């Protein structure tokens, strides 16, 4: 009996030892190998078309994204000299023959929109104004050097051209300024250089002016996220048609705060057509300095109404000077249109072709005058490049 007990004890000890070794070195041998229960999963057949989700703007994005490009710019520059190199005492001991700062290239990025299969690209002037080399990268990975066709600093627009062997995807313009406040819009561009991005918002306001961004302002305001790098990109409607060129944001941090501005497609189209045709934008000019007619100024000049544009100065020898317009006059009408403020007067005059005669309706004290002015050509702003 004792012998049997010893054999049993030894067998248990050996079994426990074997289990310990196996559990330490090959634990998977002890796991339950019974087949797991099968979960039934329903999966769409391969190649099946997915119906767009309700409220999706995927079709609009897919229609317009191929025409939105990345704009890479570079220019020559010099790195900053160490302050000691300009110190007179340092130069006294080490001499005047000190090395100049090495040249380096500064790079920038923005966005653009292919507006013609022939290779014309619209972007912002501030994206390319200081560049001496421009490169365009398409959404399909192709890259091309770009040539500057012309630019218009007063609307912050520029036109580039690229030569491509294969066809280029051009965006479709919307029919005029068809937007209304509350319409859904998509902003497409290359924010912060992360790659092409689509953001959605609504039209918050139309006709935003007097923001101090450019000379000629008539912006679309939107809460679609626009960030650095989006400049020059497309603002499209819910069908994917171009309604504006993204150009500026209101921000205290550098990022989007839900207040972005885009140049309407009507202005962009006019600038595009003029630059492609002549290489520049031509506007009317009469040579006056204008300012808002406030209640205090109206009272000082003896006017009861404050509508119109006050002529604060007249350039000697200008069309306005030759026509007899004087400082202190108030322009209240141009041909058959009413002038309500300085901004409307500037837009009306700029729209007139040089050489055309226009009738200016003037208030001068108690007098009401009609003066014929031969419109001149607006001087080209000085280039910054």
Automatic annotation (TrEMBL):
Keywords linked to the UniProt accession: Hydrolase, Protease, Repeat, Serine protease, Signal
A single MF term (Gene Ontology) = serine-type endopeptidase activity
Residue intervals of the PDZ domain: 275-341
TM region(s), chain numbering: none
Q: Which CDD domains does the entry link to?
A: cpPDZ1_DegP-like
Question: Catalytic positions?
Answer: 126, 156, 231
Which Pfam families does this one have? PDZ_2, Trypsin_2
Q: Which InterPro entries match?
A: Chloro_Bact_Ser_Proteases (IPR051201), PDZ (IPR001478), PDZ_sf (IPR036034), Pept_S1C_Do (IPR011782), Peptidase_S1_PA (IPR009003), Peptidase_S1C (IPR001940)
Tell me where on the tree of life, at the top rank, the source sits: Bacteria
GO biological process, alphabetically ordered: proteolysis
> Which residues hold substrate?
126, 156, 229-231
Against PANTHER family, the record matches this protein to:
PEPTIDASE S12 (PTHR43343), PROTEASE DO-LIKE 8, CHLOROPLASTIC (PTHR43343:SF3)
The family note in this entry says:
Belongs to the peptidase S1C family.
Name of the protein in its database record: Outer membrane stress sensor protease DegS
Q: Which organism is it from?
A: Thauera aromatica K172
